Amino acid sequence: xxxxxxxxxxYEGRVVLDLEQFTVPRTGTVAVVGHNGAGKSTLLRLxxxxxxxxxGQVLWNGAVVPRRPPASxxxxxxxVEQRPILFRGTVRENLEYGLQxxxxxxxxxxxxxxxxxxxxxxxxxxxxRRHELSDGEVQRVAVARALALRTDVLLLDEPASSADRAAAxxxxxxxxxxxxxxxxxxxxxxxxxEDAYRYADDIRALADGRLSPVTPENLFRVELxxxxxxxxxxxGSIELVVxxxxxxxxxxxxxxxxxxxxxxxxxxxxRNVLRGxxxxxxIEHRGAGVHVRADMGGVELVAAVTAEAARDLALTPGGxxxxxxxxxxxxxx
Length: 333
Fold this sequence. Notes:
The chain is α+β, with helices and mostly antiparallel strands. The chain contains eight helices and 20 strands.
């Protein structure tokens, strides 16, 4: 439906986004993850047709979007930014505004507003104004306002950054309920990796403006010495053994699926054997696996195991764990 093709976007002379192709499907939930400055917010603004790429094209249903998109097309995509701005007036008036602009009748508008208010638990906030809301409540109201428009694509930039765990869970469940009621696409930029794995159908990672073949849980900037072959890269308090001919400042990544998880060190040819403590377990959205988060002396790593392996290992937060992986598993960019 919505596609970026051959995108190369510059800001103050620096390339901040370099994408051969990025496609948003007709339905589903896509999570875009990456470190701060990876290009997530810029990507969402391009998809929302709020910015024009320095190079490349945006396509809607296969047709190239003009550099000045028509209002009718803009109305089919909605972006909620990380620090959304509410209009003057009450929460109810904020929810009504977009529907009034679209000339929707009062009865129909009230029905839609009632649905999103129920889904996001906003009943007690309807008469409040911006200064009476917390940052987390502002985010919920902004998401509700966007949902009320019932656009084809909903773009959310860190929608739960100011929410506690319970509120974040309620938000994602509300989005899932809305998607079950009608077909549309949600694209979320988030650094909350546990939420991405739990609620998204498709996870894509950005690293320095480019799509990364691995998600950024185990993505680190390091300095590598000159030469070929086996090298050591320091990441905080730990060292990673790497096999590469690259040198200088690079990004190294360890795919979670390439990490072997055990309770104690096992005989193997792996050059990287790290002992730590489990900090969290996250079940993937489709229930096929579990992501094990562990603190390795101040550096967090994430490994992916099957649900069966997680049960057999009896991993629990605070328990000891060993991550093992080969030097050739460490990817260098």
